[in-house]
Fold these 3 entries.
Entry 1:
Amino acid sequence: MGQAESGARRYTVAEYMALEERSEVRHQYFKGEVFAMAGGTLNHSSLILRCAAQLMAATEPRGCRVFAESVQLRVAEGEYYTYPDVIVTCHPEDVDATRVVQHPVLLIEVLSDSTAEHDRLWKLFRYQNLPSLRHYLLVSQQYQGIEWYRRIESGEWQ
């Protein structure tokens, strides 16, 4: 997840949101701790844009919105806020939102050496608790391929 911003300092969600409004660096929030997010490579950014462009063409005509990198996701209210690489949402509250998405149907993370394990394990576990989420894709930079996790009709993940 990265290094905590200032050691033992704990933030309220309101303090975290105020920090994000004035900061040039994005941060994740988890249970009072704030973690600076590392910048990506050119290849990382290119993959994000390519995924987002394809999804925009497929989902926006149906009233959905696609966001890349700079839009926050509320994973657990008051506990966990982060910035997935790509978010697709079709929920009316999110379509009109200005800063934070709460009801994603699809999330994408582009894997990097420093985040792959975190994205595969830690984030997957937490993202699966989002009731609206149907698909979680991990896109490799090392080879042509994706890992696709999906919620089936029974509610289980494959």
Entry 2:
Amino acid sequence: MAVGASPARDSGAAPPPPATAESAPAPHVLARELPGLHNVYQVAEGILSGSEPEGDEGLASLARLGIKTVVSVDGAIPRLDAAHQHGLRYVHLPIGYDGISEQAGRALARVAREAPGPIYIHCHHGKHRGSAAAAVTCVAAGKMSSRDALKILEMAGTGTEYAGLWRDVEKYSAPATDAVLPELVESAEVDLLTAAMAQVDRRFDELKLCRDAGWRTPPGQPDVAPAQSALLVREGLHEALRTTPGDRYDDAFREMMSAAEALAAQVETALRESNPKAASAGMKALETSCKQCHVKFRN
């Protein structure tokens, strides 16, 4: 256990992780799976990246790793009270799939210079935005060049379709040591569409688990029900579109969102009618619709 980890907060229910944030060599895969964590990478000494911590067990895994600061680059609001109970400080710095802005790059430099370590940086799944942010943080900390930092994206499997993330890691240069850097906050103001789509993303993950379980409640997740998950996806898409200002996106975006909502409704109806074949067909169409929308408007 790293110095500063809190054994008192470890319930003992989960096995200890294979290494700590302080001791493991970098960069490499620390663990594909830990309790409540996925795709955990040691990207440099004292800097890890991975998925969003799931529930209390994910936060407990971070505490066992000795993590002191958790940086979320996702749009979802961090669960601060739960994190604080595990002795974890949060920094909330949402970024998009289209790249890392100059302001975000400067904020990550402040994380590298001032945040207590070890540091864990996450997005949702731990493959794209989080890995890119971790790579920038490593450059800002002087641990590697921007070109070497691209190896982090390769290791994590960051999609090449997210060209902006690759571009901004490669071109990143740390601000001057005397530069005025942005304030770090635990919970950033997030626009309604970003927050809504972050929740849709999570409900969609649950729906995929239900599909993979034969349209039944997935193992180990008794609170997840197929029809209910489809309902939450449908409602989430509806609210995301409803709360988006009229001048924010064009008609093409609204048409694609409406089409996705209709497909989610088809999946929900099929599940309520106990028609798994129709549910699977609708789910396949919904996944295709989401990917097309992401390519056009998100990536």
Entry 3:
Amino acid sequence: MDIDIGLSRIRRRINGATRVLALDLETLVKDGFLKNESIVAISVGTLQGNYDVMMADPNNYNEYDLLSQLQDFVDSYQPEVIIGYNHVSYDITLINTKLVSLPYSKQLFALKFFFGTSYLLDMMYACALDMRVKTGDYIIRSLRKIVNSEFYNELDLMRVKENIQIDGMNPAEAVEYLWKNDAKKLREYSLGDVHDVIELYKSIFKY
């Protein structure tokens, strides 16, 4: 694969788009990734600085209501580009597995439309390409490593990945614990992901 043209190719595709939406999910992973895990929070952000975190009530869990709220946000914003960090392989794929199982009367057609017509840009690869320019190496890195990299020190990032680190718990267990016991901290963590992805996008693509 010739990655030298990567960022230039992406710039041509986004072509100065102004309606850019960032998306991130928080899920309860029990049996592994993409095993129909439950979505407990959805965070979204826009290039214009409009953010929201939709969180399910642990005492009255309703995943469909979460997806409906996401549809309302997406349909109102009508994104040209949807970004995230590994969201093409995970977040959007998981949502699509939920959508295809819905009865016709509950289909979320607007959400499916924008997932199908917006340009899906995975910032995991965009950051790897940008870091290659800076370091000479093309390496896929975690979002935690990216936001804490010296090369992005000047950016106004929230850098809240540590919120999910709880002694004796893996990340999946920590998400479930925070969802049930400290929703404010989980909300900040979820918001931080989309905020930082938006800021990285603006920096790399010169907005």
